[in-house]
Amino acid sequence: MSSKSHFKSLVFYGISIVFVLLLFKVVTAYGETNLHAPPALVNQYSLTLDEKLNCEKPNPLMLNIQQSGIYLNGFLSTVTTEPNIHFIPNLSGMIVNRQLNLAGKVPKNVFCPSFSANSLDSVAIQTQLEGTGTLQGEITIGGIPTPLKFTAVAQKPSVTDKAKSH
Which of 162, 135, 133 is nearest to 149 (CA)? Predict the structure, then answer.
């Protein structure tokens, strides 16, 4: 191998290494300034509607959320004292620009015990994430013409919930 081709190889590899390092620096700087993880949500929220439903005695509601990055699954249920009941997520959605969106179908009797358990209502939940442990937003329920405002207060995990997560 001549010293001229050896020098050309060194120059080529040197330029390639510098290019890769500069590219790495640019991508890292972009990621640090523009890419941020979504805020972590609490698993359970006690949800209170600001307006009354057309129901004699509405159920107290619980919003449960399971989060994987920006993607969400959850379910809306009644507040129950039975800790061993497991619910299948009936809501799905995501967090985009600190806006939480969940939608799906929920049994009607979740809202009011006198409603049929066999029929479903379409539900859409929207709220801005402010990081205070309290969510305020709107819930759209099929059959009700205007969205209802709600407040959801984060619930501290119980001792049994902590034991399940380990």
Answer: 135
Give the C-alpha separation, 80 to 59, whole Å: 10
Between CA 84 and CA 91, with CA 88 as vertex, the angle to 5 degrees is 130
Question: What CA dihedral angle connects 7, 12, 17 and 23, to 10 degrees?
Answer: 150
Pairwise CA distance, residues 12 & 30, whole Å? 27
Q: Among all chains, which residue has been given the structure tokens 């205070």?
A: 132
Q: Name the phi and psi angles at 8, rounded to 5.
A: -60, -40
| Rounded-to-integer distance, Cα 23 and Cα 159, Å | 48
Matching residue, tokens 């290019």: 19
Partners of 153 in the beta sheet? 46, 134
Question: What is the identity of the amino acid at 139?
Answer: I
What six digits make up the tokens of 51?
Answer: 């307006």
Mean pLDDT over 46-60 rounds to 82
As a whole number of angstroms, the distance between CA 109 and CA 55 comes to 11
**With 50 as the cut, is the pLDDT of residue 166 above it?**
no
Residues 141, 51 contacting (CB under 8 angstroms): no
pTM (2 d.p.): 0.70
